[in-house]
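Complex 244.
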Amino acid sequence: MGFNTFLLGIFGSLLVQIGSSCYSSLMTGADQALRAMLQDGIAAGTFRAGAKLPTERELVEMLAASRPSVRKALSQLEREGLITRQVGRGTFLTSTMSPDAVPVDSSPATIMQARLVFEPSIASTAALTATAVDLETLERYLNEGGKSADFESFESWDAKLHRAIAVATQNDLLIRMFDVMNAARDLPVWGLRKRQTSTPERRRQYHHEHEQILKALQDRDPEGAEHAMRVHLRQVGDALSGGA
Ligand SMILES: [Zn+2]
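Predicted structure with zinc ion bound:
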C-alpha cells in the first residue's frame, strides 16, 4: 500500500465522520472545523507530519463550507506554520501539529548534532532529485526569508526552506524522518535560544548561506549542496552555543 493510498484511507474514514457532521462549518466556521478535523486525525494517530491534506475542493465538501472561507482557513493555518502549501504538489501538514515523539529534553546542541548528521545528506540527495517545481518553491522561500525583517518571519521561512529541501528528495520516508527531527524546532528551548541569538547580521549571513545551498541544488551539484548545508548548520550551531 503506497503512502498516498494510506492517506486516502485516512480521509475516507474522516469523510464517514463528516457524514455525522462532526466537522460541519455551519456551527463553528471553516477555520474551527478544519482545525478540529486535523486535530482529531492527529490525536487518532492516523494523520501525521508530512501528510497531504485533501484539495481545496474536497475540503469545501467535507466541511460544508464556502470556497473563500476554506481558502481563508488554509491561509491562516499556513501563516501559523501548521501547514505548508507547495505549488503543483498540494498542501501538507507540518511538524507543529504532530505529536511525533521528540524527546522533550532535546537541547539545541542535540538537535544541531542530529541536523548535521541528516541535512547535508538530504541536500546532497536533493541536488539530484529536485524537480523544477521544487527549485521554484525553494527560490520563493529563499527570497521571502531574505525579505524578512524580524526573527519570527525569518525563522518561519527558514523552516519552510529546510523542509522543502527534504521534500525535494521525493522520498516519503526521508521526509517523515526529517519531520520527526524538525519537530524539535517547536520545543520552547529551541525558539528561546534562537531568539536570544538572532541578529539582523546573523540573518543576513544565513540568507547568504541559503543562497549557496540553492545554487548548488540548481547546479545539480551533490557535493556542493552537502558542503553548503554543512557550513550553514555549523554556523547555526556556533551561534546557538556561542553568543547570547
Ligand atoms: Zn537555514
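The pocket of zinc ion is lined by residues 158, 162, 206, 210, 232 (CB under 6 Å).
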